[in-house]
């Protein structure tokens, strides 16, 4: 292989990614070069030419892994936000190379024994917490990677890992393609009666970007939400609902076109087989071996306990909704495509507000000022826009993060608006991790990506309050990464944190999107600058619990479906989902519902046997926010305590220890129930 250098490939350059220069053709050569460097290091460790100590092994591998991660994070990110045909072609090739390498490394018996020898050293317990945790995490990773298996089984384990990686990528491509391929065009605005002006502008902009006049709606979430929530035309809502819940499936208007059904079946079977090779009863048992929750049975007990508390209140909320809808002439019982529509009308009737009425108080720039105020007042971090950093799109911004002395300590990329060929949803990801090794320091940098409606017609971008909550949630993940004081990337920031605890900081920060003390700082009318009216502020607090039991039951349904799919031998996923729905839900579901075939969390993300993590971590987050209510929502000492005991320590110690250090007791369930308006 010809040597690739930073002079010929911008992906290999030091510092922040050179987005203006990176092209798809740079991706595979850069990955191959970093993998060659890493393999050469492993060969030296195996041969004994690298000192078999902490610096010669752990620190040397950390440097090699960090160099590889810098390349891969850029490729992975560009694939998510600019899904051109070229990026979609090169991404799976890079992913295959990366998966193959990590699989072969996890099966490397010599390297495993080197780490075991480090763990057995007499001075191990005197090493810094991050070093000890890093070695423990590596040893667990080797064991879960199949290193103890006989040769034949190790070969099969590696084959499964490669296949699962490829299938997950295909699953995600199918979801994106199905989301964008189905659409309806409207030439007469009367066809969209009921949609607020902002939603009409969104659909008009979609049509304009597609080179059409009028209005256009596909199955991307902003467009789907506009139709399903506001369209007076019931038939239109039904068409969109049926198309949305059957995306990438064998039913519905795109039946078989981007069908993920065989992919899901194969992934479930392979996950189960891989877990059994390692001696676990199921994939769920394997995944929970490194979580706060101990067993799938513990998780199911937790979820069913919540469901018992939520079901009667949820039924009452549905009965109220149906009675209200009947008063407006709706059919009984309500169909799935009626729920969001009448729920929004009931919300406005009961509370006097709706998401659209609130939008003028949540202008994007003002909300960001409030978001950064939280970071400054609680944690002493300031965010300053820096315009000389390369980005991948003109809308993207980069912020330098500094501490109280003005020293730069981190960085943040923001990509906030929806656009074509950009993956939907909102997420945080790692650009660079904090690393301090041998006098070399790398500062943490994060990506914060959303899909908000962009500014239109020279008007600023206005957010729904749901958007505000999403923004605070993802910013919480960013703070977890940016505030770390751990020097080894593998156990710093969000890396290595138990999956059912990693949502704690994000869900905790959502509290500042609801509390009056916080809202007073950034909920200002876009034209007048007036704060949110007191009556609306009161209504917003009630809105947080509006149909809360229904929302909670829906999340429990997703989590329990995921758990049961992965707790046994690959069952029919549609049958499992329907059985869980019938056991828990009070709302209807159509026969053609194939939601699982577009459930990217489970099949193109890290949440397999882990979707319960949202609720598990939310219990911690609600309890933690109660503590902030007692201490002071913007009290610097309270923020410092959170940063010291949870945010800054990453996975250098188990989250159970971090939680005890922060709260001094186990988390209570009552704050979680109260957040959903359910009596404890």
Automatic annotation (TrEMBL):
<dbReference type="GO" id="GO:0006508">
    <property type="term" value="P:proteolysis"/>
</dbReference>
<feature type="domain" description="Oligopeptidase A N-terminal">
    <location>
        <begin position="32"/>
        <end position="154"/>
    </location>
</feature>
<dbReference type="InterPro" id="IPR045666">
    <property type="entry name" value="OpdA_N"/>
</dbReference>
<dbReference type="InterPro" id="IPR024079">
    <property type="entry name" value="MetalloPept_cat_dom_sf"/>
</dbReference>
<comment type="similarity">
    <text>Belongs to the peptidase M3 family.</text>
</comment>
<dbReference type="GO" id="GO:0004222">
    <property type="term" value="F:metalloendopeptidase activity"/>
</dbReference>
<keyword id="KW-0378">Hydrolase</keyword>
<protein>
    <recommendedName>
        <fullName>oligopeptidase A</fullName>
        <ecNumber>3.4.24.70</ecNumber>
    </recommendedName>
</protein>
<dbReference type="InterPro" id="IPR045090">
    <property type="entry name" value="Pept_M3A_M3B"/>
</dbReference>
<keyword id="KW-0862">Zinc</keyword>
<keyword id="KW-0479">Metal-binding</keyword>
<dbReference type="InterPro" id="IPR001567">
    <property type="entry name" value="Pept_M3A_M3B_dom"/>
</dbReference>
<keyword id="KW-0482">Metalloprotease</keyword>
<dbReference type="Pfam" id="PF19310">
    <property type="entry name" value="TOP_N"/>
</dbReference>
<dbReference type="InterPro" id="IPR034005">
    <property type="entry name" value="M3A_DCP"/>
</dbReference>
<keyword id="KW-0645">Protease</keyword>
<dbReference type="Pfam" id="PF01432">
    <property type="entry name" value="Peptidase_M3"/>
</dbReference>
<dbReference type="GO" id="GO:0005829">
    <property type="term" value="C:cytosol"/>
</dbReference>
<dbReference type="GO" id="GO:0046872">
    <property type="term" value="F:metal ion binding"/>
</dbReference>
<feature type="domain" description="Peptidase M3A/M3B catalytic">
    <location>
        <begin position="228"/>
        <end position="677"/>
    </location>
</feature>
<dbReference type="InterPro" id="IPR024077">
    <property type="entry name" value="Neurolysin/TOP_dom2"/>
</dbReference>
């Amino acid at each position: 292989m010809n040597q690739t250098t930073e002079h010929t490939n911008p992906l290999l350059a030091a510092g922040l990614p050179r987005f203006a220069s990176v092209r798809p053709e740079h991706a595979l050569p850069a990955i191959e070069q970093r993998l060659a460097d890493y393999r050469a290091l492993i060969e030296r460790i195996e041969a004994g030419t690298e000192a078999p100590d902490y610096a010669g092994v752990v620190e040397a591998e950390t440097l090699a892994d960090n160099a590889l991660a810098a390349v891969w994070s850029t490729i992975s990110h560009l694939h998510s936000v600019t899904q051109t045909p070229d990026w979609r072609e090169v991404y799976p090739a890079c992913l295959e190379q990366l998966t193959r390498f990590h699989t072969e490394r996890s099966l490397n018996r010599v390297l495993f024994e080197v780490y075991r020898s480090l763990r057995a050293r007499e001075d191990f317990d005197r090493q810094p917490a991050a070093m000890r945790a890093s070695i423990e995490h590596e040893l667990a990773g080797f064991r879960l990677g199949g290193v103890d298996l006989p040769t034949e089984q190790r070969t099969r384990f590696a084959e499964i890992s490669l296949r699962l990686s490829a299938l997950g990528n295909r699953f995600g491509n199918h979801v994106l393609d199905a989301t964008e391929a189905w659409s309806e065009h409207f030439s007469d605005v009367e066809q969209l009666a009921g949609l607020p002006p902002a939603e009409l502008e969104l659909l008009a902009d979609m049509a304009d970007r597609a080179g059409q006049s009028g209005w256009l709606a596909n199955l991307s979430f902003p467009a789907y939400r506009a139709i399903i929530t506001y369209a007076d035309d019931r038939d239109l809502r039904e068409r969109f609902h049926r198309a949305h819940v059957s995306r990438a499936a064998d039913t519905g208007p795109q039946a078989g076109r981007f069908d993920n059904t065989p992919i899901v079946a194969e992934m479930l079977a392979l996950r189960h087989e891989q877990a059994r090779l390692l001696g676990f009863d199921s994939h769920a048992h394997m995944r929970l071996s490194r979580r706060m929750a101990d067993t799938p049975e513990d998780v199911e007990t937790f979820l069913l306990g919540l469901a018992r508390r939520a079901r009667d209140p949820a039924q009452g909320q549905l009965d109220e909704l149906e009675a209200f809808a009947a008063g407006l002439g709706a059919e009984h019982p309500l169909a799935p495509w009626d729920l969001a529509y009448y729920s929004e009308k009931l919300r406005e009737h009961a509370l006097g507000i709706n998401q659209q009425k609130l939008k003028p108080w949540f202008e994007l720039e003002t909300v960001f000022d409030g978001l950064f105020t939280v970071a400054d007042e609680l944690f002493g971090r300031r965010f300053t826009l820096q315009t000389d950093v390369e980005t991948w799109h003109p809308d993207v911004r980069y912020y330098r993060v500094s501490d109280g002395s003005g020293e730069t300590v981190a960085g943040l990329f923001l990509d906030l608006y929806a656009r074509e060929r950009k993956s939907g949803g909102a997420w945080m990801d790692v650009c660079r991790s904090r690393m301090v090794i041998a006098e070399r320091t790398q500062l943490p940098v994060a990506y914060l990506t959303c899909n908000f409606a962009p500014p239109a017609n020279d008007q600023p971008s206005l957010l729904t309050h749901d958007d505000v909550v999403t923004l605070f949630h993802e910013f919480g993940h960013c703070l977890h990464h940016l505030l770390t004081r751990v020097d080894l990337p593998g156990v710093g920031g969000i890396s290595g944190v138990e999956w059912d605890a990693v949502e704690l900081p994000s869900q905790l920060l959502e509290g500042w999107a609801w509390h009056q003390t916080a809202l007073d700082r950034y909920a200002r009318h876009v034209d007048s600058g007036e704060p949110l009216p007191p009556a609306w502020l009161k209504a917003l607090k009630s809105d947080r619990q509006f149909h809360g039991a229904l929302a909670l039951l829906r999340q429990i349904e997703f989590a329990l479906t995921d758990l049961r799919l992965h707790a046994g031998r690959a069952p029919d996923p549609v049958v499992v989902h329907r059985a869980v729905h019938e056991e828990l839900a009070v709302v209807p579901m159509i026969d053609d519902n194939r939601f699982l075939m577009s459930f990217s969390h489970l099949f193109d993300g890290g949440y397999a046997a882990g979707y319960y993590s949202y609720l598990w971590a939310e219990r911690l987050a609600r309890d933690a926010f109660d503590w902030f209510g007692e201490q002071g929502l913007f009290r610097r000492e309270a923020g410092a305590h959170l940063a010291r005991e949870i945010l800054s320590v990453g996975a250098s110690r188990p989250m159970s220890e971090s939680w005890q250090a922060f709260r001094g007791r186990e988390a209570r369930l009552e704050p979680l129930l109260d957040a959903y308006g359910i009596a404890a």
